[in-house]
């Protein structure tokens, strides 16, 4: 996108807060230099410009179906950090990555009101990751970790809600940076089903804590 076109876009207060957090985290990891904030803002506005071209027009009172994506784009921020703050390199990667099926599962912003989805799916406001990945996680959890599955059932809280939070945030605030990079790389190289296996492995790792909290 041309610089002049992108400058007509603006970031919401929530996105600006996300940018501040990303830059702070990037500097903590020694991945970003000074003025990285401008590069990330420009990158996010570029993505906004490109993805708007692939959006349906939907009239709805749902907050998640407004023209602007309701959340912050954690996947783009993750790639930006992986590329050490090189905005141009990140944008080139995202343009190529968006042609792959796995982009629908890792980059949730990619399918926001997308023309690639059936109208009924868009109007429901439910992201495909919820009824694909999260659904399969629950099915697999029953078979692999029945005690954890029962614990969630007793709590009245579903594993899919937790997993959607993890996936949306690319496991930020849950895993160390090295593991976040492994998660993204594994899903790209081995396929989107590894997103499901990753969540199941996290539940297996947390099994004793989950059962302990259930008893308490």
TrEMBL record:
<protein>
    <submittedName>
        <fullName>BROMI protein</fullName>
    </submittedName>
</protein>
<feature type="domain" description="BROMI C-terminal Rab TBC-like">
    <location>
        <begin position="1"/>
        <end position="215"/>
    </location>
</feature>
<dbReference type="InterPro" id="IPR035969">
    <property type="entry name" value="Rab-GAP_TBC_sf"/>
</dbReference>
<dbReference type="Pfam" id="PF23440">
    <property type="entry name" value="BROMI_C"/>
</dbReference>
<dbReference type="InterPro" id="IPR055392">
    <property type="entry name" value="BROMI_C"/>
</dbReference>
